[in-house]
Design goal:
The chain has one domain. The chain is mainly alpha-helical. Helices cover 61% and strands 0% of the residues. It is globular and about 55 Å long. The longest helix is centred in the C-terminal third of the chain and has 40 residues.
């Protein structure tokens, strides 16, 4: 019987692949540079918010920005695709379904920016500024990638573009986060957790929302029961949401005072 050689796919090698060893070090230059660039972008948006709002191509820019976010998310899955002989279970899509919180944060932010939905903004804001910040603090999923790999750029784009988009809508269009966004966020996370629990239980390669106990997770100390884990995570998220709203109140209060000072100065 003729043997079949399994080819090295983009998912496994080259710029679109992964390293065979850990190459990304948390809290290194490669960690902080993307975050600093995002902070610089947010500062520029605040500085030129009036000019951006009155720009005749503002709507077009907003749609292009939303389109880039979608491409950034879809490209994560495109790089996993392979068609040809020698396919094995290592690249099954059951482990890469769009069931992660960060993926939905990006999707919701995209629709919010295109539709200018203030209600959707509240939920997108609280998701982005709570659970959406955790991967920036502990970017464990890119341990085997770095600046020489596409996944490195895709990861930071997927997580930072929605954050920049939030501040864009706040500064340029004056959107405000309402307290009603907190229960909406918790409800959405519960609904998202249900299919995650199902796939985690029925497919070996599935590990969504950290609800599957694993010794390699940064949340490995959590109990093996996915339902008990979900309750603990929701409690932690509630604390993060409260902190996000507190910080939001402090920041917006300062911004209002800054705007008042600018108006008086004029």
């Amino acid at each position: 019987m003729e043997s079949v050689t399994i080819p090295m796919t983009y998912y496994r090698s080259g710029f679109f692949g992964l390293s065979s060893e850990v190459v990304f070090k948390p809290y290194s230059i490669a960690h902080f540079v993307p975050i600093l660039l995002a902070v610089a972008a947010i500062i520029l948006i605040w500085r030129y918010r009036d000019a951006i709002l009155n720009w005749k191509h503002e709507r077009t820019f907003r749609f292009i920005y939303a389109f880039v976010m979608i491409i950034c998310e879809m490209s994560y899955f495109w790089r996993l695709q392979y068609v040809g002989p020698g396919m094995d279970d290592d690249t099954t899509m059951m482990g890469f379904l769009p069931l992660q919180v960060c993926q939905w944060t990006l999707i919701l932010t995209t629709f919010m920016m295109m539709s200018k939905s203030k209600r959707l903004f509240s939920m997108s804001f609280f998701m982005t500024m709570s659970v959406g910040l955790l991967p920036l603090i502990v970017p464990a999923v890119i341990s085997y990638t770095g600046p020489t790999y596409y996944r490195y750029y895709q990861f930071w784009g997927e997580h930072l573009l929605p954050i920049i988009g939030m501040f864009y809508m706040m500064f340029v269009h004056g959107f405000e986060a309402k307290p009603s966004g907190i229960p909406m966020t918790l409800g959405f996370l519960v609904l998202l957790a249900l299919p995650c629990i199902y796939f985690n239980e029925h497919y070996v390669d599935s590990e969504y929302m950290y609800l599957k106990h694993s010794e390699y997770d940064m949340l490995s100390f959590l109990p093996e029961s996915p339902y008990l884990t979900l309750l603990i995570l929701l409690a932690a998220v509630l604390v993060l949401l409260a902190l996000a709203y507190l910080v939001y109140g402090l920041v917006t209060g300062k911004l209002r005072r800054a705007k008042t000072g600018e108006s008086i100065g004029k």
